[in-house]
Specification:
The chain is mainly alpha-helical. The protein has one domain (2-172). It contains six helices and two strands. A two-stranded antiparallel sheet has the order 1-2. The radius of gyration is 16 Å and the shape is globular. The two termini are 31 Å apart.
């Protein structure tokens, strides 16, 4: 499932992404990848969710490999489409519709993954917790593109809240 999802995103980015101006989106792509790297690093011994692969387990044997696929294929593909289309219009309604499309798409994929066992939740996290998380992610992405310092501040604040709420303990980290 994870390979299919990422290949579809890559194909969509090929069709609708702004490849010609990819350097404009590069800092935001790196920002999202770094945020996910930090999430995986900080939650190594206290995961909130874990990715699994059933169909192509030989290619994607564990959570780390699946996360790397998402980081280096899924996120860049998403950002090349999302930011290009988001800033292409000045219409508040079109931006809101575009934002909601991506939130619903990501949440739908996650829900299907959860229901089919490709994603499991741990340490108090449930699918419903992903809803505000995905909303925040798709708000922070264009914010980072326009105001990186504010986006970093929000990302650090959200991370701190998640660490506190879900019982992460610095003394238990590796």
């Amino acid at each position: 499932m994870h390979i299919i999802y990422n290949v579809l995103l890559l194909l969509a980015a090929y069709r609708w992404g702004d490849w010609r101006n990819g350097e404009k989106y590069y800092p935001t792509i790196l920002f999202i990848i770094l945020c996910d790297f930090l999430h995986n690093f900080l939650s190594y011994d206290h995961q909130l969710w874990t990715f699994h692969e059933k169909m192509l387990q030989g290619l994607l044997p564990n959570h780390t490999i699946i996360s790397l696929l998402i980081m280096f294929v899924g996120y860049p593909s998403t950002i090349l489409i999302y930011l290009y289309k988001f800033f292409k219009t000045n219409s508040w309604w079109k931006r809101t519709a575009h934002f909601l499309f991506w939130v619903i798409l990501y949440l739908s994929i996650e829900f299907i993954g959860f229901r089919t066992g490709y994603i499991t939740y741990h340490n108090g996290w449930e699918f419903w917790h992903s809803i505000p998380f995905v909303f925040a992610m798709f708000i922070i992405i264009p914010l980072h593109h326009k105001n990186p310092r504010l986006a970093w501040g929000l990302a650090i604040g959200i991370t701190t809240l998640i660490l506190h709420y879900y019982g992460f303990s610095i003394d238990k980290m590796k």
